[in-house]
User: Fold this.
Amino acid sequence: MNKHFRVAGRLAHKLEEVGVSVPAVLRRAGLPGDLFQQSRVLVTTEELFALWNAIGAVSSDPAVGLKLGTETKTERFHPSGIAALSTENFGAAVEHMARYKQLTCPEEILHYVDEGEWTIRFRWLLAMDTEPQVLVEHCFAWMQTIARHGSGTKMSPLRVELVQPRSHIKLLERHFGCSVITGAAHNAIVFRASDAKCPFVTRNAELLDMLAPQFDQELKQRDGQDSFAELVRDAIQQRLTGHRPSIEDVARDLHLSSRTLQRRLQEAGSSYQRVLDDARHQMARYYLGNSVLELNEAAYLLGYEDANSFVRAFRGWEGIPPGQWRQTHGLGAVN
Assistant:
């Protein structure tokens, strides 16, 4: 299990946007003053809690967690959020986010259906203290952001359940559009079970534009004379959004049967697995060479079950581990 959280540098910009002093927050949290100037901001659970407790203490706005967890512009979403938006429905999005958390940090997203209700909880596995109230509200606001942005609707939960009391219950109820109760056994956001099947209008719509703009531009500049294998590879890359796309999914996108797709690849001297590997290889080179994604994050986006599987695959492609390849080919590399 990864014992650190990666804090997005975007958080510092959002704090400034809502009028919260970043230096004051870092001083209050006992964290380095240059934390957000680092290329990769990694913190322990204790440091993460200190950061969010400090945000709540420095800000005079009781809605600060809600504001930080609400976003309307896709280009400002974290890659894991974009991957979630590219799924077919809200339930699939939560599954993807849960898998991302499991792969990259000591946190879990738990969700289950009972008597027509779909309960979603966040659990910090290494926490010794109670999770900060502002962090809980941020997580629930982010979940609602994914639901609304993905579905294109004003979806609201049935209720929000909180362990600790709040003085701003009315504010929370206006934001979430539902009742908020305190004194609960767990912090949870509860939707209707049917909400899990709510289709996403954002499915794959902007994924390549957000995650691999240079590669997408290359696709747009092609002259239309692509080989069939290249067309299949393109379709696969459109679906590399946190899971391994099946041949049935890709065939459906190309308006073919899976049997016809297999036959035509064989005629071209290729196979689905070979094209899938090529698609992953190209995207892996882009992620490692043009972004500051962690290896775990790249592995997630490319549909690997764990980082070790990605490392083995990359070593087979390039002959060296991805970390070593990035040192000579990535951003800031000296050639």
The beta strands are 5-7, 41-43, 107-114, 117-124, 159-162, 179-182, 188-192.
